[in-house]
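job 3f2a | input accepted
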Amino acid sequence: MGEKHYREIPENPTLLEEEVLAAWEQENTFQRSLELTRDGEPFVFYEGPPTANGRPGIHHVISRTLKDTFCRYQTMRGRSVTRIAGWDTHGLPVEVEAEKALEISGKPEIERIGVERFAEVCREHIFTYKEDWEKFSLRIGFWLDYSRAYITCSPEFVESVWWALSRFHEKGLLYRGHKVVPYCPRCGTGLSSHEVAMGYEDVTEPAVTVKFAIEGRPGEYLLAWTTTPWTLPGNIALAVSPMIAYVKVRVGDEIYYLAERLADEVLGEGYEVLEILPGGALEGLRYEPLFPFLADVVGRQNGWLVATADFVTADEGTGIVHTAVMYGQDDYDLGVELGLPMHHLVDEEGRFNPEVTRWAGVFVKDADPKIIEALEESGQLWKAADYTHTYPFCWRCNTPLLYYARDSWYLRTTAVKDQLLANNAAVGWHPSEIGRGRMAEWLENNVDWALSRERYWGTPLPVWICDRDASHIEVIGSYSTLAERAGIEVSPGFDPHKPFIDTVEWECSQCGGRMRRTPEVIDTWFDSGSMPFAQWHHPMENRETFEEQFPADFIAEGVEQTRGWFYSLLAISTVLFDRSPYENVVVNDLVLDAEGIKMSKSRGNVVDPWDAIGEFGADAVRYYFLSVSNPWLPKRHDPKAIAEVRRKFFGTLLATYRFFELYANIEGWTPERSPAGGERPVLDRWLLARLDGLVADCRADLDGYNVTHAIRRIGEFVVDDLSNWYVRRSRQRFWGTRAATRETMDAAFGTLWEALLTVCRLLAPMVPFVSDWIHRELTGGTSVHLERYPLADARRDEALEAAMELGRRLAGMGRAAREAAGIRVRQPLRQLVGVVPGGQAARLGEEVLGIIRDELNVREIGFVDDPAQLAGLKVLSEAGIQVGLDTEVDDELRLEGTARELVNRIQRLRREAGLELDDRVRLGIFGAPEVTSAAEAHRDYIASEVLAVEVEISPEPPQGNGYEHMKKIRLDGREAVIGVQVR
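job 3f2a | predicted structure (983 res):
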């Protein structure tokens, strides 16, 4: 063997990938790819900012792989791809970490140590796991530009967010309202509707049917049902529907009112209907409070009456709805309509106030069983039962949310509902069902965005209010405006956060009062949704750059971001710029465990992504997630399935490269020896035609954001076309001593080299490591990520491809017929006869037929029109095609079969002896007459196949050690001895 042009590929994926990572770092490959494409057509990608105080998980592999895949693809197309990193640095995740660091919990303790100290600790914890994220992203091959990453807590970013809020105010879309909001008592703040949508869980809780005694009618009761017993102390009205029929019934000595259609379900049997009456007939009835607490505070003159409402249904419960004004949106709206008293019995930590003497200080959810017990003691409980339903939890801290009336700042997103729907319809959603369904339905039912948060570490709401007249409001849209109003200097080190910003005030220009900032911060989703312009500090600077970089060509995140980042981006950009901020969205679903169960720490089934990468390599994990199903379908993290990917696809790809490397090094072959494509044998021309088709299909798939189709096509090509057909049918051509001519050997090498090179380039966006390693070997060191994505080369040959496809079908059927007859492939047979409809056999041609003859080891292939002519043959039928195999073996065929078996056993002996592929040997074959006769008859064939320069054939092996390596074998029940000696 001469000089080695190609290295052996590492078996261990970790070693291979670490070698590639080192090359990227040494050569600065990512930066070079950006420089090479700097003048290309822009392709804008927005990175959804992760929170850097939480570690990445296995689910981040799929989302970051998707992002990287399409960015790499567009870079290889020559486009200038924006890949700016970003960090989400505000909000509850940071505050929770700060609380842990300070060993405190809750707002009272935060305010005890002081907001300044708390904000200082928050700032210290914004990047707790930043290094982990960067290492993780690089290790899985996700290239991001961290050199100018946007940070949501930076003064520049905050100023741009202030500008956006001032524009909302100018358009009349920012307002303060007293409404019922989903409220987290642990975090002490309300949540927006899209945050609530991210935290629903199925829970089983007590539901109660309660007897409300009608005032002045002893023994008569209204039956109402609720799934939130803790709100019953705050009950102040009951609601019925004027569209529902109600019944007055007698049960024993008591009379009850409820919806007619629900009476059987609620009362069972044994009740007497006294009257059927419309819901309106119950309106105005007064009843006794269940508990005295609220009445003692607000008086009984206004409340505890029956009202009609359109939100009442008879789908479940009793058809009579209990309402507590402060703890439900329908309840609140009804209370406003009726002018009912509005008083909280629950504090901001979710605990009953002191006036609820029986349960003062008890968390409301913990009070449910105590309240049910009290109702039972007083005879006011009709029934209590477990009820399973979907309930919202805080998506940050997993505390059950309370629907709680309070003041909050809102963005009037309902005012732009039509524009939101129109802009959403213009987006290329992948899958389209998300855009037409989940997202469109969310926008159709859009409610105003609850913007403010009663927290500490966040973008301060830039609203200043006069202390004399609350209608005098200023919304500050820049630091220069703030400096002008307050008469302060805003230096480069200016910090806009609490508590400093709360000290900035000025005289009201309208009345002389003091303008003081409203104390809230804003929803962090507004921060992340502002990134298209805030990352550029627009409009204070970089206006042209922002316009060039807006909208994004592509974003990708999990399906839960439909009501998170996707919505916040869309809502903000629709108001500010009247268009969607993204043109294409690729959505991925959850990563489940191997059993299909959602991962959670409580279940103990969370997978550390570093473990998966360490065991299988990043390429295999990426390939698995991209290929197992479309991104928008749930995935199982199944180690067995990933191992199968490594075995089947990567095992085949690496084996194909090893085959090329081994024989190309033996023959000293290099790419400049490749002949022109049109001059190559038919199998080469077919493979190049298939390669062109693969290139065209992959480009179309990736242009359409259909990565699963693309990667599956590549996998099928590598396994089925390249390895199992082309290489297997061309093996002898790669060995100079067996190839028919030097030209056919060079053609084989050239075709395999080009196929491997093209596969690497096709695969590079999805599988960046092994594609780069092999590409560097094939090209003398050039990274695949600095190359252009392949273009089809006008070599498609539909007639040849169709002929080869038919030939492969015939070959597969012929192999199945052999197997059914119990005849091994190395045993030659006389003929295969086919019945092929529609004259398709005529397209095969002699070259293709020759390949099929070799594949099936038959002397002849013929075709007939009448299946009856297959009589006496081993017949197999499939999809309209029939084949008949002549299974009769005469002496001539038997001798040839034995010779082929001898070659197989001798090759095994060569490998066991550790011989090099190009070692010449002296060969000995000894044994029964049937064996030696076959060896004599095919002496030249055997010698050529095993590189024997001398062949000794005899009934008995020589005495002593005639050969360095000898072995006893059995051929068709006959004993023989073979021996080889290196010459």
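job 3f2a | The mean pLDDT is 94.
job 3f2a | closed
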